[in-house]
Write a structure and sequence with these properties.
By secondary structure, the chain is an alpha+beta fold. Helix content is 41%, strand content 22%. It folds into two domains: 7-81, OB fold (Dihydrolipoamide Acetyltransferase, E2P) (Beta Barrel); 85-253, Recombination protein O, C-terminal domain (de novo design (two linked rop proteins)), CATH 1.20.1440. It has helices spanning 85-88, 90-106, 114-129, 133-148, 181-184, 195-206, 209-212, 219-237, 243-253; strands at residues 7-20, 24-31, 35-41, 60-66, 72-81, 169-172, 177-179, 191-193. The longest helix has 19 residues, at 219-237. The radius of gyration is 20 Å and the shape is elongated. It starts with 6 loop residues before the first strand and ends with a helix.
Length: 254
């Protein structure tokens, strides 16, 4: 087996950070080359640190990582896309935080997945440039589920395999997809899903992002999809997410 290089240049997106020691930060970064890594940025909290502005959450940056005993040591950083708009608006901050929280929760350290890196890179870019946040986020959710092996079954009943008819159905997190009215009525944890909501989820699942942006979703359906996805993702993670509650509070203030 080849020896691990002492240092490596990577492209990464800062997911989160926390204080470490007197002047350092421990960063969680999703990189194109290594997947998710933990890295210490030494001295970054000092007033004269040159790296601090390149390592804010949601920033995509070119990084030089050196191997350390427990964590990587971040020795150089240069922002490629700072995504400043995502930190200047509370609603966008909430959506961006939700995107990175999902990626963080569903991934393990140092499992390279370039498709996931492209997904989060593109999603944060779309939010930052002003695309409709609901479309960006729901498209991201569906694509994330594809990449991590939890693609929901939306075209046939997840129980009897019969083709779904154009009527309101049920959705079962435990069975991983839509249930027809006959099967869904016997599953206690299954939730109703309207045909319009199912239509949009199918559209996101089988479309390119450009095609997905053509969807015109009414607010009640947006709320239904949001609730349904939170139910499914919480089931898969076996615990609740932090950011949806923050988003709800922020939107109430608008």
């Amino acid at each position: 087996m080849a020896a691990k290089p002492r240092s490596q240049r990577v492209e990464g997106i800062v997911l989160r950070h926390r204080e470490w020691g007197e002047a350092d930060r421990l960063l969680t970064i999703y990189t194109r080359e290594l997947g998710k890594v933990q890295a210490i940025a030494k001295g970054v909290r000092k007033p004269r640190s040159r790296k601090a502005g390149h390592l804010e959450p949601f920033t995509r940056a070119g990084l030089l990582l050196a191997s350390g005993r427990s964590f990587y040591i971040l020795t150089q950083a240069e922002a490629i896309a700072p995504h400043i708009a995502l930190r200047g608006d509370l609603v966008l901050l909430g959506y961006a935080s939700y995107i990175v929280e999902l990626l963080d929760r569903f991934t393990f350290d140092e499992e390279e997945n370039q498709a996931l890196f492209r997904l989060i890179r593109n999603s944060l870019t779309r939010l930052d440039r002003g695309d409709a946040p609901e479309i960006v986020v729901h498209y991201y959710e569906i694509r994330l589920l594809d990449h991590i092996g939890f693609r929901p079954q939306l075209f046939n009943c997840a129980s009897c395999e019969q083709e779904i008819q154009p009527e309101d159905q049920f959705f079962s997190a435990a069975q991983g997809g839509v249930l027809c009215p006959k099967c869904g009525g016997t599953v206690s944890e299954a939730r109703p899903i309207s045909m319009p909501a199912l239509k949009y989820l199918r559209h996101f699942q089988r479309s390119s992002y450009q095609d997905a942006t053509r969807a015109q979703i009414e607010q009640p359906i947006v709320a239904e999809i949001e609730s349904l996805m939170n139910y499914y993702l919480t089931y898969l993670l076996e615990r609740g997410l932090n950011t949806p509650a923050f988003l709800r509070r922020v939107r109430k203030r608008e």
